[in-house]
Amino acid sequence: MVLEIKNGIYWVGVIDWEIRDFHGYGTPYGSTYNSYLIKDKKNVLIDTAKDYMFNELIYGISKLIDPKDLDYIVVNHVEKDHSGCVDKLVEISNATIITNEKGKEHLSLYYDTKDWDFVIVDTGDEISIGDRTLKFIRTPMLHWPDNMLTYCEEEKILFSNDAFGQHIASSERFDYEIGEGIFEHAKDYFANILMPYKMLIPDAIKAVKSLDIELICPSHGVIWREYINEIIEKYNDWATNKTKNKAVIVYDTMYNSTKKMAHAIAEGLMEKGVEVKIYRISETSLSRIMTEILDAKYVLIGSPTVNRNLYPEVGKFLAYMDCIRPLDKIGVAFGSYGWMECATEKIKNIFENLGFKIVDDECLTVRFAPKEEDLKKCCEFGKRLADIDL
Ligand SMILES: [Fe+2]
Ligand SMILES: [Fe+2]
């Protein structure tokens, strides 16, 4: 489908209904790769799609123009979910690529670009495409070195690429058609794509706030029209680690000992009014857990010791968390062991790497299986943890 979102500006993106794993990020609702066509004196395509969706993309463009007549392709970001069709489109149209220096470098590493025409832009540069002008704002490391935003002043549209995206496949194209439920999708996306670089977000938000915006057109999910101020404020909260009185308990278990400890600590926290979420890693997507951690005050991770090491599922989760890098949490490591306790030290190492404040207690490691009194101690620990002020 194609949809005119403003006079002469069209959504020509593709909907990936079936995708359930996006480079390790669970996408239970699918995704879209949004591409936008501006028909002016020049025909401009903003971003493309994954290569396996080329036919769908070209089908949409062809409803509006002959693809041979594309003049420019703006590459806001070279990751292949957005640049995957650029090579084929250049072959058809000979369109000139508008991107930044890093974008050009990254394109040359993915494709044979020696015969491509480029216009290289930087923050503040403008290109007239007829009645409209495109302006560019670079946002390096949100989340690749090449990321940039494209702003059309006359139409008050910000083409934000990955920023403000959501992984959701839907027949709706605008935020108001989904309602406030869209924020949970945006949060999920933020937690798993942008969290590692959240310290860079306040400056990017400042740049976005200086623009007069009627539409934010991201390259995944729906277009923001009704909730523009709200989503910008939420980005600010998420980037500045505004937390709730909430604990996320993440564990895995061999013979339910670590599981029992997790539930006993949760009892204590809940008695003190802390919101608790518990996830067994092997039964939950890592990205879902990370979304819950985004606004949590406490992160508790439990693992049995297996042959002087972590339970493998917990190791997998820790590697993911270490790469997503949530910051400024209170961390607790716990777990059961047989003859040599090793798992909690490994968990605490990761907490230290991330700068978590670690809370420890001798009740947090138990040999073989926790008895009634051990579980009571875990519960009491949960209560004390709720009162801790670090
Ligand atoms: Fe990306
Ligand atoms: Fe993307």
The largest pleated sheet is described as: 7 strands, mixed
CATH topology of the largest domain: Metallo-beta-lactamase, Chain A
Beta-strand percentage range: 15-25%
**Are any ligands bound, and if so which?**
fe (ii) ion
Report mean pLDDT, rounded to a whole number.
97
CATH C-level class of the largest domain is Alpha Beta
Structure summarized in a few sentences:
The chain is an alpha/beta fold. The protein contains 13 helices and 24 strands.
Short key terms for the protein model shown above:
390 residues; Rossmann fold; 2 domains; single chain; 34% helix; Metallo-beta-lactamase, Chain A; 6-stranded parallel beta sheet; elongated; 13 helices; binds fe (ii) ion; alpha/beta
Give an overview of the whole structure:
With 390 residues, the chain is α/β, with parallel strands linked by helices. It folds into two domains: 3-239, Ribonuclease Z/Hydroxyacylglutathione hydrolase-like (Metallo-beta-lactamase, Chain A); 244-387, 3-Layer(aba) Sandwich (Rossmann fold). It contains 13 helices and 24 strands. The strands form six sheets. Strands 1-2-7-8-9-10-11 form a seven-stranded mixed β-sheet. Helix 6 runs parallel beside helix 8 (228-239) and helix 9 packs across helix 13 (372-387). The chain is elongated. The N and C termini lie far apart (53 Å). The relative contact order is 0.10. The structure holds fe (ii) ion (2 copies). One fe (ii) ion binds next to loops.
Topology:
Blueprint: E1 3-6, E2 9-11, E3 14-16, E4 21-22, E5 25-26, E6 31-33, E7 36-39, E8 43-46, H1 54-62, E9 72-74, H2 80-83, H3 86-93, E10 96-99, H4 101-110, E11 118-120, E12 126-128, E13 133-138, E14 148-152, E15 157-161, H5 175-178, H6 182-194, H7 201-209, E16 215-218, H8 228-239, E17 244-251, H9 257-271, E18 275-280, H10 286-294, E19 296-302, E20 305-306, E21 309-310, H11 312-324, E22 330-337, H12 343-354, E23 357-358, E24 365-367, H13 372-387
This protein binds fe (ii) ion (2 copies).
